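Batch job 17 of 40 flagged for manual review because the log was empty.
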Amino acid sequence: MKKFLYLSRAAALSTAIGLIFSTSVLALPPTLNNNGIDYITGGIGLDESTEIEAAQRQWPLTLQFAAANRTGGEFVANVNVNISDSRGREVMTAVADGPYLLVKLPPGRYNVNATYNGVMMKKSVTIQRGKPVKASMLWRAS
């Protein structure tokens, strides 16, 4: 009986150690800062996009970027983003390294200009405390 119990504990310990070393720790891309505004950009790959989608509830603004093509659409990266306040003053600029850009903006009205492949899109957003906003920007096939 003791021998069986010992083997069971050893097997359980071995399994636990295997799980610890085989499970990757998922993490958000690093938080960056421009002009005093924190942001995260990324979303390349399933793991990273899943982490960003889970985190977006804690960020006042989520921008999502995609482009239409013949078969529907695809997420895009390398989007130049400029956000200005309601008076036209630049609040921040960033280059989205993936299809998501999460931004910690204070409450207020903002204009988002996003440029992909030389084509600029504009979107207005209003940030309210405790009410995250998600804005999608879709470029049409040319």
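Reviewer: the log was empty due to a logging misconfiguration, but the result itself is present. The chain has two helices and ten strands. Unflagging and moving on to job 18.
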